[in-house]
Amino acid sequence: MSIELRSRRGAVGTAWHAVALRDGAERLLGPARVSRGKADARAGRVQWLDVDAGAARGDVLDADGELYHARLELPAFLEGDRRVVLQVARAHPELPARLAAGEYPQQIEAELAASEISLLPRDAMELSHDCSCLDWPGPCRHVSALLYVLVEAVDEQPLLLLTLRGLALEDLVAPARTEPDAAAPDDSAAPQPAVTPPAATADETPAAPAPPAAFDPARTEPARLVEVVGEEVAAVIHRFYTDPS
Q: Helices (DSSP H) in the chain: which residue ranges?
């Protein structure tokens, strides 16, 4: 199924962001490729369009009936630029709805420009191309035809600029900040305070320690000690505790 341009004559693209994309790419293509590519796009020679992070692709039918695979590249943002874009976008909570409705506010580009960043190609050097027709150094008419199909797609869906730069609509919505719940203290693991007996009051007399138990000489009976210290020593101990002299 081929794609036919809505524009049948004159310039392609009406919204400011589509015009900016077209102008930047036309500086890369050159006048000869511009006219041939536009004619091929209007003739419906581009069979399909796929837009992904960093590139737009499509098959283009040549006049001789051969299909060629064309590719136009616009680099996805590096992490630092991505953070700036998200910071600017999240300062405008209405932006996702406006993009989804087909509108890309120029104010966003103006704020990004302060950091020398743009969703659009800042110059022709930021764009690159490739085609299976091997028309070197190019760009060939197939790439040019793909460009005009992309311009009209971006005209209607500026979200495709986000896609090319490696972003999605969901990325523009600031995530809800959630703080992790503080862990409840584990009472079983906490050190337990030493239990101190209550001090005696002024009206109480501390209890006297119990006297040591009286020694029982029967514990020195040789029969009880033999297994421990032997017969001779057991007899000596017995006499020590039982002989009154």
A: 16-29, 31-42, 79-90, 95-100, 106-113, 141-156, 159-164, 222-229, 231-242
Cis peptide before 121 (omega within 30 of 0): no
Decide if 28 contacts 143 (C-beta within 8 A). Answer: no
pLDDT digits (tens, 9 = 90+) for 210-245: 444 444 555 556 666 555 546 765 565 556 556 655
12, 151 Cβ separation under 8 angstroms: yes
Q: What global pTM score does this model have?
A: 0.69
d(CA 61, CA 84): 40
Q: Say yes or no: 226 and 162 in one domain.
A: no
Tens of pLDDT, residue by residue over 113-146, are: 999 999 999 877 888 999 999 887 778 999 999 9
Unique residue bearing structure tokens 């953070």? 83
For the chain, how far is it from start to end, CA to CA, in angstroms?
A: 131
Q: Residues near 88 by Cβ (< 8 Å), separated by ≥ 6?
A: 108, 111, 112
130 belongs to a structural domain: yes
- Number of domains, the chain: 2
R_g of the chain, CA atoms, integer Å:
45
- 202 in a structural domain: no
Q: Is residue 40 part of a domain?
A: yes
Task: Assess whether 239 and 141 both reside in one domain.
Answer: no
User: Residue 234 belongs to what domain range?
Assistant: 218-245
Domain assignment of residue 171, yes or no: no
